[in-house]
Amino acid sequence: MTKQEEQLRRIYKDYTAPLRTYIDLNFPNINQDREDTLHDILEKIVKHFDLYDSRFALSTWIYRIARNHCLDLVRKQKRLVSSDSEALDHLISPVGNPYEQMEDDMKRQRIKILLSQLPLEEREILFLRFFEDMSYRDVALAMNKPLGTVKYLIHKAKEWMKENWEAAS
User: Fold this and answer.
1) I need a surface site. Which of 5, 84, 114, 158 has the fewest CB within 10 A?
2) Residues near 104 by Cβ (< 8 Å), separated by ≥ 6?
3) Domain map of the chain by residue range?
4) Domains 1-82 and 97-169 equal at CATH topology level
């Protein structure tokens, strides 16, 4: 097996589930089937793998492809994207204690409500930064935004969520 084949297998293994979550969270109104969208993105990654610049994080390149593909689909539909509150259900695993689980469910519901009210760009940036644990620099590259803008949008979104935490109950 060549090094490129190993890399592609790793991409399929490591990025299929996170990309599915990324699509569900940030582009819930794409009319195309989710699995078809995911498959199309993975195909683009494989097809253009020779264009990947190893000076940058692989995840940055992958999420940029995913974002551009989904935005193309949205543009084709000529529809605004709205939020889907069920997209985060599988991101936070349940706790063993029923009382803790109930409390976590309530927090998770609040987070979903708040995230659904954020603009798409801010939801995407928060997803990449906190759910995918990407650096600010990598988020900026993936979103094709200046680093300062990414930092500002994260700060703005976090402050807004803090201010609206109680109202989301």
Assistant:
1) 5
2) 92, 94, 95
3) 1-82, 97-169
4) no
Tell me which architecture the domain covering 1-82 has in CATH: Orthogonal Bundle (1.10)
DSSP-assigned letters across all residues of 78-112: T------GGGGTTTSPPPSSHHHHHHHHHHHHHHH
d(Cα 132, Cα 1) in Å, to the nearest integer? 29
**23-49 pLDDT tens trace:** 888 888 787 788 889 989 988 998 888
The dotted CATH code for 97-169 is 1.10.10.10
Residues 6+ apart with CB under 8 A from 114: 160, 161, 164, 165, 168
Cβ–Cβ < 8 Å for 38, 19: yes
DSSP 32: S
For residue range 44-75, what is the model confidence (pLDDT) as tens digits?
Answer: 998 888 888 888 888 989 999 999 998 888 88
**For residue 9, what pLDDT is reported?**
86
Q: How far apart are CA 157 and CA 169, in angstroms?
A: 18
